[in-house]
Amino acid sequence: MKKVFTLLLLLAMVFLASCGATATEGSSPGLSGESSDANVIIMDAAYRTYPDAKSLLNEADRVFAGKITQIDFAVLDMRTGEAPIKSDPDASPALFSIYSIEINASYKGERQDSIKLFVDSGVPNYRMEEQIELLQDTFLAEAAREQKEVPVLRDMPTLAIGKTYLFVTKNATVEGYVFPMFPRQSIYDLDNPFELHHSDLTAQKVISSSGKENWDSFWGDWQRSHPGWEHQLDKDLVAQALAEVARG
Predict the structure, then answer these.
(1) What pTM, to 2 d.p., does this model score?
(2) Is the dihedral of CA 75, 14, 43, 19 positive or negative?
(3) CATH of domain 2-247
(4) Which of 57, 66, 130, 188 could serve as 101's disulfide partner, Cβ 3.0–4.6 Å?
(5) Measured in Å, how far apart are the chain's first and last C-alpha atoms?
């Protein structure tokens, strides 16, 4: 797994810690909250961004829609992808969230039924004590142990078990594992496929860029599973987006 974390370092490991926000019970949508006195450290990371959906898809290894079925946590050495060795002064431990995903549709890359998404970040307001215990079992910064602070990426959305998202990812060297590209351009909540993200990207634009037939199939299924959607979404925005799809 060494190359997995080398790639993550190149993409995301320029972190600047800023003010922490107190974690409160149940404040993560769709997640079962847990009472804790832990705080989160919000971190910024340097990512490559993309001007449009086509350039994003060209760089991606896999694009798929899938439902989150489980969230696990691990502290791993970013150089090796394995548990850090406490006696190794060069170890670079970091907290990872590992999302188990049941794939509903694939738009690029090998088709499979399930996959695991690695994210170099904790999850706020969810099993905080478990994340703190993992951090305390390693030799991370003393402040993190004393203040009970969980590192969280600013650009990483909170993903809820049971919800379905569109993911744009790069492959890890271990089969069945992937990691996101710039989260604000590579993770889309499919409750609203027209919601604007960074560089005005939307799930609709990403899926359409993978092939008009993919969008037509998705849109038909989505409408059937979201009765009354006309009263929930911006009709003008939807009409404009669908007109662009029709024009090709």
Answers:
(1) 0.82
(2) positive
(3) 2.40.50.120
(4) 66
(5) 40
